[in-house]
Amino acid sequence: MMDKIFFNSSMPYSGSTLLQNIMGQDDRFHVTPTNGLLDLLLSARKYFTEGHEFKAQDEEEMLKSFCGFCKGGISGFYSHINKPFVIDKCRAWAWHYDFIKDITGENPKIIVMVRDLKQIIASAERKFRRGQLKQSWFIDHEKLQGTNLVKRFEIYLNSNPVNISLDWFLDVIQRGLDKHILFVDYNKLCKNPAQEVKGIYDYLEIKPKKINFGDIKQVTLENDNYHGIFGDHKIKKAVKPQKDYSSEILGDVICKNIDEKYKWYNDIIKNLT
Q1: What average pLDDT values come out for the chain (273 residues) when binned by 10 residues?
Q2: Residues with Cβ < 8 Å from 225, sequence gap 6 or more?
Q3: Strand order of the sheet with strand 110-114?
Q4: Is the peptide bond before 161 cis (omega within 30 degrees of 0)?
Q5: d(Cα 197, Cα 108) in Å, to the nearest integer?
C-alpha cells in the first residue's frame, strides 16, 4: 500500500525516463511513465470551480470537501500498488506545486531533471532526423515551414513540449518554489549516478538502497507510437557519460544563439544543480 507519493516534473529530453527507471530498481518504489493523474485532478477542479451545485453551498466547507476528494483520489489511484513509495511522472507537477500542497496539506517532494538547452534542442533535431519514415506534423513544404534547420530550431523552441516547459520552469523560479524542489542535472546524473541518486534519497528522506548502474532494467512502459517521431522512452542498461552532440547537430551559430537568448535558463540550472 502506498505510503508516500513523490513527483517527477522534468524538462523535456532531460532524462526523466532514465530517472524513473533508476529509482524503479529499488523495489520499494512504483515509478510511472508519463501519467495523467494530474489531469484527473485538474478536470475535477474545473467542474468544482464552475459547478452550480458547489457554488450554492458554504464555500469553506466545499473547499475542505474538494481537498479531501482529491487527496482520496490520489490514494485511490494507487490503491492497487503494493509498494510504499510512488514517483508519478508528469511535466506539469512543479508548476502546480501550491495546488498539491493545498490538497495534501504538506510540501510535496518534486524532482526536476534539467539539461543544457542546446542539448535539449539537439535531442529534438536528432529524433526528427531519425524519424523520416513518418510524416512530421510541423513540416509543411508549401508554407516553407520547418524546411531548414534554423526554422526547425525556432519551432522546437516555440512549441510544446519545450516552450511550455520553459515557461513553467521560469515561473517556478520567480515564485521562489525552487527552494522546495530538487533539481538534478542530466549530465551529472550520467557522469556520477551514485552521488546524484544519493542526493535524491536524501531529499526524499528515505534510506538508500544499492543500485547497479551498469544494469538498469526498464520497468516503465510507454507507447512511443503515440508520441510520433519524438517518442523515445527506451533506456540503455548502463548509466554512463553522454556525448554532447549539440554543436555537431545544430552548428555553432544556433548554439551561440541559444546561449545568448536563453542565458537565464542555463545560468539558473548551473546555480541550482
Answers
A1: 94 96 98 97 97 93 97 97 98 98 97 97 94 88 96 94 96 97 98 98 98 97 64 84 96 96 93 88
A2: 231
A3: 29-34, 85-89, 4-8, 110-114, 182-185
A4: yes
A5: 19
Q: Please identify which residue in the block is written with the cell numbers 517532494.
A: 109
What is the 3-state secondary structure of 172-224? HHHCCHHHHCEEEEHHHHHHCHHHHHHHHHHHHCCCCCCCCCCCCCCCCCCCC
> What gap in Å lies between CA 170 and CA 164, rounded to an integer?
10
Cross-strand bridge partners of residue 7:
88, 110
CA dihedral 190, 194, 195, 197 (to 10 degrees): 80
Q: Which residues 6+ apart lie within 8 Å of 191 measured at CB?
A: 241
- Say if pTM beats, i.e. exceeds, 0.90: yes
- Determine the structural domain holding residue 53 and report its residue range: 4-116+169-242+266-272
Bridge-partner residues for 112, per DSSP?
A: 183
**Is residue 72 in a domain?**
yes
Strand partners, 113: 184
Identify whether 248 is part of a domain: no
Share of the chain above pLDDT 90, in %: 88
Tell me the three cell numbers of residue 119.
542539448
Residue 31, domain member (yes or no)? yes
